[in-house]
Each structure stands twice: as structure tokens, then as C-alpha cells.
Specification:
Layout: E1 2-6, H1 12-24, E2 28-29, H2 46-61, E3 65-69, H3 76-91, E4 95-99, E5 114-116, H4 120-127
Parallel strand pairs: 1-2, 1-3, 3-4, 4-5
Helix pairs in contact: 2-3
């Protein structure tokens, strides 16, 4: 399976740990955005911002599972969640999971396509591995 993990940029070390666990289970990472260089302010880097935003949304749409780490609020992660919900409604994938300490923070975390769990291990259990 191909996983996309969304989170606030500052949580990239936690995301890398989740990536490691996913890969240990024999699955792929759809896009490792933690390797992107910082590009803020976005309006000073419009071409690069356009390129990376396109790559990330396509990676969400082409993933089998989206996991959103809800330990802190971000901005881009909610766009990725929206893209995943629309993709799920259109294509039946990705499976969408919200994990972490704040799984009740947004009304969109309660969308019928979304499952809320505490940890990545709970997601693995749901997916049968």
C-alpha cells in the first residue's frame, strides 16, 4: 500500500518516524515532503510553491491511505485532508485516518470518510497488518 502522511511542517521528525514504521511493514511512502526544502515565504517562491503543491496533492490522490497527524494545527495538512476526502468520494480511496492527541479538533475529522485513531499502530491494526 502507498501511504501519504500529512502534518504540520514542524512535526517532520515525528512524520519520519511514522514513515519508518510504514516501511518496516513493507509499504510505500507516496511522497516524502519532509525532504522538501523550506520555501516560505510562498509568495517569494511562487514557481517552487506551485510545483510542490501539485506534487503533494497528486500524491494524496494516488495514495491508498492518508494519515493526518493531529498533534498540532497546520495549514497545508488541512488542504491535503480535503483533497483526500474528495478523492475518496470520487474514487473510493485513499482510506483516511486522523491520529494523534487532537482527533476532535476539526469538524472535518468527523466526515464519514474519516476514521479517528490514536496511533499509527491502530491504523495498521484496522488495515490488517
Amino acid at each position: 500500500m502507498k501511504f501519504y502522511v500529512a502534518a504540520k511542517w514542524q512535526l517532520k521528525d515525528e512524520v519520519r518516524e511514522i514513515f519508518r514504521k510504514i516501511q518496516e511493514k513493507g509499504h510505500e511512502i507516496a511522497e516524502d515532503w519532509t525532504e522538501h526544502p523550506p520555501i516560505k515565504p510562498y509568495d517569494k517562491n511562487p514557481a517552487f510553491s506551485r510545483k510542490l503543491s501539485s506534487i503533494d496533492i497528486e500524491s494524496v490522490r494516488n495514495s491508498d491511505v492518508l494519515v493526518l497527524l493531529a498533534n498540532e494545527d497546520g495549514i497545508g495538512m488541512y488542504v491535503e485532508l480535503g483533497g483526500a476526502i474528495v478523492s475518496y468520494l470520487e474514487k473510493g480511496k485513499p482510506e483516511i485516518y486522523i491520529i494523534g492527541d487532537n482527533t476532535g479538533r476539526s469538524m472535518f475529522f468527523f466526515h464519514p470518510a474519516v476514521k479517528r485513531r490514536k496511533t499509527i499502530e491502530n491504523v495498521f491494526f484496522d488495515l490488517g497488518f
